Amino acid sequence: MESRWQDSQADEYVKKYAQQGVPEELALRVYTSRLIGADDSLVLHGGGNTSVKGRARDPLGAEVDVLYVKGSGWDLATIEPQGFPAVRLEPLLGLRQVAGMSDEEMVNVLRTNLLDASAPNPSVEALLHAFLPHRFVDHTHADAILALVDQPDPEARCREAFGDRLAVLEFVFPGFPLAGRTMEAFERNPEVEGIVLLKHGLFTFGDTARESYERMIRHVARAAEALQAGGRDTSPKKVFARASGPALHEPGPDELACVAQVLRGALATRNNNAAGGWNRMVLHHRTSEAIRGFVDGGQLADYSRRGVVTPDHIIRTKNLPLLLPPLPDSLDGPALEKFAAGVREGVAGYARDYESYFQAGVKHSQAKGSRVEYRMLDPLPRVLLLPGAGVFTAARDEKSARIAGDLYEHTVSIIAGAEALGKYTPLEPVELFEMEYWSLEQAKLGKSSPPPLAGHVVLVTGAASGIGKATARAFAARGAHLALLDMNGELLEQTAAELRAAKGLNNSVLALACDVTSRADVARAFRDVSLRFGGVDIVVSNAGRVWQGTMADVDEAALRESFELNFFAHQHLAAEAVRVFRRQGTGGQLLFNASKSAFNPGPDMGPYTLAKAAVVALMKQYAVEQGGAGVRSNAINADRIPTALFGEGVLEQRAAKRGVSVEEYLSGNLLGRMVRAEDVAEAFVMLALSERTTGTVLPVDGGNIAAAPR
Q1: C-alpha distances out from residue 694 to 23, 622, 687, 697, 698, Å
Q2: pLDDT in tens, 116-161
Q3: Are residues 405 and 532 in the same domain?
Q4: Is 608 a catalytic residue?
Q5: CATH of residue 138
Q6: I need a surface site. Which of 505, 553, 571, 658 has the fewest CB within 10 A?
Q7: Out of 17, 354, 424, 608, which one is annotated catalytic?
Q8: Which of 264, 299, 302, 303 lies closest to 285, judged by CA?
């Protein structure tokens, strides 16, 4: 590991931020913070923190000493000056004389001393940064440091690697206790360049941004050298001996998608107040040579289940992963059910063990005098290990699942390094409990509710424009993850990009060019969606097009074309969806875009009308056959929506047949108002959230008694 400091870059930061009134020391603090954040072997996803001491003007114009320290919610890789809230330094230094302080009291002191009340909360380790006399302080959870300190004899390992250049401190819970103990360690040897916090990470400091940063890089490099001393190979493939016995089955993409659906179903929990009656998660899968070396190891049940490499990871990954049963050579029929049963049993056992861990943690905390009223978090695993396949991570959204995946991928290399050096030995569970159940986080529980379709995956066909596009946006607004299908791949990608960029829509969007009249294309699409998100919960079968002609004179080829898109495509989607629903075992929803013409046919619309009438019957048949499995099936009958369905002059032709203008035709309903694609989209969402409704047809046509279903 080498320093990435460049004088020219540092000067650019100083000049750039000077134009915004940012002092030089803060500009350099931003620069070196970003250097640290850009290296994922140092910090990941908001981890670590940095600070600089300087001067700033308070609201009355007086110059005061301040601590600029990383604020909550900021990532070092992208941090800006406003990510370092300024806190009055003098009151913080006065806390050195205080014997004890709760987390809530500490946060209150930090917030009441902010120069800007709207600034983010300062880091929980702000007092540590304040107490140290150095101008710049850096903190990371570097992989090499963690491998070195997660040992049964970490202090001796650190002495050997760093000599007396770093102070070594037993693990202390972050916040006020850590700040005090850190200063005691520093004052015993004020010449040190940093402090190693065992089982946690490294602090370095200096009088300049460059000095503090390069001390960090130098000591992390020394830790890496210690791990590899004597030519030691720390790659997981070399460290972990493969399991003996028959070769592990390595699933192909179709099998992996099937596995994901089973896992995702096992992680869903019943909740009558949630959409579909289930709380759901999104899955993320990853594999690599290193990950395979780890999960295929014969002693996986030992080294993977000793605990997290640093307490900071526990919120994302929980303390322990779930080890999945081995895959059978085939996932057909009984073999799949046996595997699924093993997965469900494993998840249930994990939940029981987690509850025991929770009770032990509460008892331990209460014995230490804690008065927190603990509420147990959900007991489900966030990391699932499958020999032969890799790592699955789970969360209520894809971003969080991917973050957990990143953390665990680094966990793999950290544990390998620790095992190569000695024996991986993290903190005990009772100590980790305090991090997972930090009182400030417990206080937030129940104060916010996730959107109604959080954790749900919605697949929409014909999604590039019109009703499909509006429907995608409506489901995204309720928190759903989206899989968008359309024949027009270029237009579809534009729609997906718009949704990804839309303000307030933070959902993941997968765009797949797909011909829904092809069973193979549809099966491939469901596979790809499952590989991305773990499965599917709601299918909006929307794609369609108008074919016209009198039935006595219709071209049979045109009639068959209409049925391929306007009927058989719906059947392809529904049949494949039900296969996924069965593997998940948690029900699901089929939503069809039918047509008012199924009840109120118009002249020369037979090729379209007959297919749409069949779709209504198809919807009812699925409602009858799949209701017992918790699958709901419903349809929308929309009419006269100005979309591409009426392209190529169809809209004008329909208006001319009635002797009216296009505008009169579109508003020719009981309400006298044109119906928009957004109205249909909201109706689809309403049906999705109507927990006791199946087998129904909902008109969205502004009122047409002749087309009203009976």
Answers
A1: 63, 9, 9, 9, 11
A2: 999 999 998 999 999 999 999 999 999 999 999 999 999 999 999 9
A3: no
A4: yes
A5: 3.40.225.10
A6: 553
A7: 608
A8: 264
